[in-house]
Amino acid sequence: MTKLCDSIDTLSMAYLDDELAEEELRDFELHVTDCADCKARVDGDRARMADLRRRLAPPPAPDLLRARLVRALDAEDASASREMRRQRMNRFVLPGAASVAAVAALAVFVANRPGGSSAALTQEAIRQNTRTAPLEVQGASTEAWVRHYYRSDVAPPRFNDASVHLAGARLASIEGRDAAQFFYQLVTPDGSFELRALTFDAHGVDLDGLEAVDVDGTALRVDHRDGQNLVVFVGRDGYAYLFTSRELSLQQLAGLVVHSDLVSRVQAGRVAQ
Question: In terms of C-beta distances under 8 Å and separation of at least 24 residues, what long-range contacts does 113-121 make, across chains too?
Answer without folding.
Answer: 113/211, 115/209, 116/208, 116/209, 117/206, 117/208, 117/209, 118/206, 118/207, 118/208, 118/209, 118/210, 118/223, 119/209, 119/225, 121/174, 121/175, 121/205, 121/206, 121/207, 121/209, 121/210
